[in-house]
IclR family acetate operon transcriptional repressor (Amycolatopsis jiangsuensis), 263 residues
Amino acid sequence: MNHSPAQPPAGTQAIRRALGVLRLLVNEDGELSLPAIARRLDLTPGTAHRVVGALSVDGLVTHNPHTDAYHLGPGAILLGQAAQRVHGLERALPVIERVNEDTGESVNITIRDGGESVVLLRAQSTLPLRFEQHPGARFPLYTTASGKAMLAWSLDAESYLAGLPEHLSALTEHTLATREELALQLAQTRDRGYSIDDEENVAGVRCVGAAVLDDQGLAKAAVVIQVPTVRLPDERLPHLGARAVAAAAEVAQFLPPDRFTRH
């Protein structure tokens, strides 16, 4: 009997390369040249040209002749709009927009993808001092209010903690240093109902987060309010925490279960 590893389906490599280009452009605020795409994805120039050309046929990627660079095209916009409808995000967006208007601060809906928290929707603050971010941005779970909120109401929190190194990689000087510190924060999050990121992910930014729970009380997403540290003294935390919890409960009505979080 042949026990050799199963070969990936034909065309898998081409599909993964195309998805790699799309993910790369999702995380870019502007455009990327073909050499930059090839370099970032470790592709030959010829391969990058073929992949980008195939994506351009259906409008998923568009070429800017003035800059000789590429950005997401109208086909990607249509896909994104369809996905928002299917996943209930069209109805969830007004919830975070209302919190944004009431507080003046940026508000995200995030999901979990393995060990990362991923921004799904964002209502950006219009105040002059704010932290710029975009949907698709990814950060380690242990550095973010969203990650801690989702971990606090997950079934795999203990296995996640056990899989972390004893000393955690720091994004800022305030990032939690050990698994023990994270475990303590998860317990505190469950006690008070919301999580806190105290400049642990981005220097100068504090956040509060609340888990969006399914019918079994498990996190399927999170609502996060991001605030420059100068506008978020300790005494304001409970108020924004309560706003995040209320918004998360409202968003939970619109997001279907088991469609987002990947452990």
About this structure: The first strand starts at residue 32 and ends at 33.
